[in-house]
Amino acid sequence: MPQGAVLIYSAHGVSLAVQQEAEKRGFQIYDATCPLVTKVHKEVQRLNEQGYQIVMIGHKGHPEVAGTMGQIAGDMLLVETPDDVAHLAVKNADKLAFVSQTTLSVDETADIVAALRQKFPKIISPNKDDICYATQNRQDAVKALADSCDLVIVVGSPNSSNSNRLRETAAKRGVCAVMIDNVSELDTALLSGKNHIGITAGASAPEILVQELVALLQSLGYVLEHNPQGMEENISFVLPKELRE
Q: Catalytic positions, please?
């Protein structure tokens, strides 16, 4: 990055090493890390200070995982599946804790948490579940949506963890499910013989992309029959302090 540039930390958060380097180089920094992610970062730091080795449930290479595991100098362990837990070697089973990638739903982490508790009965968990409410709400909604549809279209990016999980969740209900970044990626041949189409979107997908998809389907003769409100989301997050003025 060039000297004097503006640097924005994404909602996924970044490691301490990135923060330290950014401050050292004098960038103008806007920290847009999601407060739910920041909460996990603080938990990791607190647990580390108390002498716990920490296991993180998450996807290798995901930016949130990289940021969270980079909050401490100690060696955190990453597990993606119950099988990973079976092969996990820890320093002290009596001083072990776990945290989770926020964009994994309760359903996705349940088997892994159960495996951790079975292998390490004394492992401790955070005071509250570290699950993004937007992720959980959307997965709960898509389960109901899929049961009344011939096709479910998820608006979301291929590198979005929660968008991919939405498509998988719908597919597991036995319905055809596809994910598109925007309307230009929709193969209209998929619509053949489909009378009821469900639409959902990843937590960070702009609403305009959803509306463009709705408009396209309406232009093809589909009628918007039902727009479920789902779980009310009334949590508000403040702007980065540098922007509040």
A: 64
